[in-house]
Design goal:
The protein is of the alpha/beta class and 230 residues long. A 4-stranded antiparallel beta sheet has the order 7-1-8-9. Helices cover 31% and strands 21% of the residues.
């Protein structure tokens, strides 16, 4: 294991072992314990009391973070010619159809989100093996398959993210950057968690939000008191 630098040790020492912080404290602390030399992402991990193997306990959805993610999201709009101008005006980074389908077929996936139209989804089906594992397959539930292309692109650029519980019952999401004010990190976290609470499956029994951790790209996890997020 690599030896920790003085700066890394100092950052780690600020997180008290076994202490559970309220969301306000955690949002400030995640900025302090960052020792990366770049503007690291702030991530949240929420462990839910669900069994994702059961269809009636699957948790997935979308949320518009009030302060965005701080990330320049690269959007590909796979649209017919009549929708190209709308997509470009909304700020899509790449706009087109057949030429991009061919590029994806050849392995190109240098985008963060793909927005498309219902009529185009049939052409995307065969590319599921490329797009699926990278989380790039458009989905009507996340608002990325729609006729309102301009609106979809604008929302994604502004900080709309989609999330899905993993096989361990955990939701992982990027909710900002360490350069954000602590208040903005807190508000973005609250928005995501309140959305998760609204999506609680009726089949889920017992404690729903079991644990919450905040961290930056290279920092230790900070345990957050689940009662402090309501």
């Amino acid at each position: 294991m690599a030896k920790l630098t003085k700066k890394q040790k100092e950052a780690l020492s600020k997180v008290e072992k076994n202490k559970i912080y309220n969301l306000e404290e955690g949002s400030a602390l995640v900025k302090e314990v960052n020792f990366a030399k770049f503007d690291a992402s702030v991530d949240i991990a929420v462990r839910l009391g669900v069994d994702p193997r059961k269809a009636n306990q699957m948790v997935r959805g979308v949320v518009s973070l009030p302060h965005g993610t701080g990330k320049d999201v690269k959007v590909l709009a796979l649209v017919t010619p009549d929708k190209e101008a709308e997509a470009k005006e909304a700020g899509a980074d790449y706009v087109g159809l057949d030429e991009y389908l061919q590029k994806i077929k050849e392995g190109w996936t240098d985008v963060d989100v793909i927005v498309t139209m219902p009529a185009v989804m049939g052409k995307l089906g065969p590319l599921g093996r490329v797009l699926g594992p990278r989380g790039l397959m458009p989905n009507p539930k996340s608002g990325t398959v729609t006729m309102e292309i301009g609106k979809a692109v604008t929302e994604v650029k502004a900080g709309k993210i989609d999330f899905k519980v993993d096989k361990y019952g955990i939701i992982h999401a990027g909710i900002g950057k360490v350069s954000f004010d602590a208040a903005k990190i807190k508000e973005n976290a609250q928005e995501l968690i309140s959305t998760l609470i609204k999506l609680k499956p009726t089949a889920a029994k017992g404690t729903y939000v079991k644990s919450i951790y905040l961290s930056s790209t290279m920092s230790p996890g900070i345990a957050i008191d689940t009662k402090s997020v309501n």
